[in-house]
């Protein structure tokens, strides 16, 4: 509208403000009464009401409503008013005789502006719906395209009404109109099919009336208007403004009359096509001569148009669904990618399916935290930020905003028309500072207008009055800087995607808060654990230290006790007990002297243990060599202590029995890691060997201890000769303990 007005230099605001709903007059083919809703007394009437109702002029004041329209209609009006069933868009309809003259009248009654309005028109007889109506409804129901649906509708309505031209006029998003279907007499010129009309041809306030009152019939453009008369003013005649928004007899505005004269239209109709509660378009009838369409036929026309609108919704919804289904699938795949990713921006811009795949866009961008992430063919990041900022100013209530003419938002964007003539943006995030934006390139269009759209009006000589344009000749315009328009479903999918991103952000923030909370709990537990570990470490060191001291004390007592015994065998038993206690004491000493309180480096311990045993034997007068080989091994204390006691028993037995008294010899101790993760302990010698029929359980206390400890460790205990028999010996002895993996 700004372009049209500025090109002509005319201010179209007066056209927009014309009070067409209160013309102060009616058309003369019927009469109107405005009633007080409580008393049903006449407050205002059209000047021709007395004549139509058969009441002498000036005698209307003294008549009851029943005397004017009949008691039966009065009762129906009272019942409908009580039930609040006098809607302007769906008035009470009745046919009856006027008591004043017996004429048959068609009545329409509605309530508006605090008054009950009764309209009456002559009717020859009670009318039935045309016989063609059911067949037409079936044909409309079966139409599967807008073109076929429009053709069937205009043909049926022209046949029914007798208009010389019937056309369907569709509004675009800027309220410009296009004739998408037309049926007319062959000699009626010009043909309007395919022509576009500027939105100023049907101004805003007229469109608002069409959205509320869905039918408008004008039998005779040039018929003299009938003024409204207020009963309170009597003969003075002029009535206060009466809102005739829903009145079918409402007189035409001067601009509308002039427009019809310029079109050479006398009789006319306009019936609203409503889709989802919004004015989609009009079904328009033109006649060069006056033409009165009977009320019953008008009803049939409105039913046909309603059927057209219902089928239109189904046809366009099906077409929309077919077009949008591919993009619904892309939307679903983008959601899947986001669900499986930590970074939703990367999921939208670098996944197998990207944001640019939606809506057949040439390119797209994600604006997140002030950073711009581009995908496809787009303007530069800086230009994208400027476009997003400009579109943000157009946002209404957080809904997506779309334009097929980005240069219309700002002329500075015209230079990007090759990549971004159109844009769709949706905003998300806690403060809606982040955005998704899609771009479409320029698509050059050629539009045929019904007259020059740059001259929507003409100015009366002297510039005192704006008149509708007079020329409707075909005028072709080439549109540059426009992209393909964005269907409504693209905005719905964009809004859904932004909502999903909001949920991802909220979910990530919630998860981050939960993780931070758990991290704080873990950190607190870790601190507490560290304190407990320090305390435990100190306690274990103290325990091991005290156990070691206690064991050393016991060992010393055993040694002192043994020294005072004369019997060699008893003294040796005390010595064995001393060694056993010392073995365990040495292990506890290692535990409190190292950082590890629950395990011991057994290879190192084994060397120390064998050194202690060797020194003990030297003190007993025996000189044997102990050879120790051990693989690195860290064993828990519950395995190391039994294994150490086994070593003590086997080495001690070798000292006692492997070699004859006074003889020299070697004892081999090895501890090797096995392939299965276990360990093999071997104590062997080259001495006299095992006695015939040797059985550990039949031996002394030492062998009994070894056997018992092997069972405790789930270890396999084996014994036998260490080598072949030589010089009458039995090949020495070999004891092997196979320790399973921990």
Automatic annotation (TrEMBL):
<dbReference type="Pfam" id="PF02518">
    <property type="entry name" value="HATPase_c"/>
</dbReference>
<dbReference type="InterPro" id="IPR011495">
    <property type="entry name" value="Sig_transdc_His_kin_sub2_dim/P"/>
</dbReference>
<protein>
    <recommendedName>
        <fullName>Histidine kinase</fullName>
    </recommendedName>
</protein>
<dbReference type="InterPro" id="IPR003018">
    <property type="entry name" value="GAF"/>
</dbReference>
<feature type="domain" description="Histidine kinase">
    <location>
        <begin position="542"/>
        <end position="742"/>
    </location>
</feature>
<dbReference type="InterPro" id="IPR001294">
    <property type="entry name" value="Phytochrome"/>
</dbReference>
<dbReference type="InterPro" id="IPR029016">
    <property type="entry name" value="GAF-like_dom_sf"/>
</dbReference>
<dbReference type="InterPro" id="IPR013515">
    <property type="entry name" value="Phytochrome_cen-reg"/>
</dbReference>
<dbReference type="InterPro" id="IPR035965">
    <property type="entry name" value="PAS-like_dom_sf"/>
</dbReference>
<keyword id="KW-0600">Photoreceptor protein</keyword>
<dbReference type="InterPro" id="IPR003594">
    <property type="entry name" value="HATPase_dom"/>
</dbReference>
<dbReference type="Pfam" id="PF00360">
    <property type="entry name" value="PHY"/>
</dbReference>
<keyword id="KW-0716">Sensory transduction</keyword>
<dbReference type="InterPro" id="IPR036890">
    <property type="entry name" value="HATPase_C_sf"/>
</dbReference>
<dbReference type="GO" id="GO:0009584">
    <property type="term" value="P:detection of visible light"/>
</dbReference>
<dbReference type="GO" id="GO:0006355">
    <property type="term" value="P:regulation of DNA-templated transcription"/>
</dbReference>
<feature type="domain" description="Phytochrome chromophore attachment site">
    <location>
        <begin position="145"/>
        <end position="306"/>
    </location>
</feature>
<keyword id="KW-0157">Chromophore</keyword>
<dbReference type="GO" id="GO:0009881">
    <property type="term" value="F:photoreceptor activity"/>
</dbReference>
<dbReference type="InterPro" id="IPR016132">
    <property type="entry name" value="Phyto_chromo_attachment"/>
</dbReference>
<dbReference type="InterPro" id="IPR013654">
    <property type="entry name" value="PAS_2"/>
</dbReference>
<comment type="similarity">
    <text>In the N-terminal section; belongs to the phytochrome family.</text>
</comment>
<keyword id="KW-0675">Receptor</keyword>
<dbReference type="Pfam" id="PF08446">
    <property type="entry name" value="PAS_2"/>
</dbReference>
<dbReference type="Pfam" id="PF01590">
    <property type="entry name" value="GAF"/>
</dbReference>
<dbReference type="InterPro" id="IPR005467">
    <property type="entry name" value="His_kinase_dom"/>
</dbReference>
<dbReference type="Pfam" id="PF07568">
    <property type="entry name" value="HisKA_2"/>
</dbReference>
<dbReference type="InterPro" id="IPR043150">
    <property type="entry name" value="Phytochrome_PHY_sf"/>
</dbReference>
